[in-house]
Amino acid sequence: MRISKKSIALLSLIIIAPIILYLLWPSDEGRIKRLFKEGSKAVEREDLDNVMSKVSFNYRDDYGLTYLYIKESMKSVFEQMSDIKIEYENLEIKVNDATATADMDVRVIATIGNDTGYIVGELPKPVHLKFILEKERTKWLVTKTEGLPFNF
Description:
alpha+beta, 35% strand, 5 strands
């Protein structure tokens, strides 16, 4: 029995493809890191649709915030502020199946009128935030936030 080159190539592809996919497919932690990196850049660009694409429609937190309330609040923020810069550090991610938490220290600098300064956190003392995320299909989305420094 002679095996054709096509059969060998197909068999090799079936064996090698899952290995390559596993090695190149980003981990859940990597996806969450990318979510925060892209989300902070979207806020800096004042790209509301991209910001909200990181938030679950099921968002609800202890402050009474929901997806729609956040969206309207972000519109208002973008109208009032400019030159927004987000700094975050000490990002710690814990993944547990379809849920995850992300803890980080955050500072936000923005310009309101002619004044520029920290609107969240300070240089020596950032605000510590905790984000709760859920995996919806293959995408991680924020469903709750803890540690916000203001009341709504």
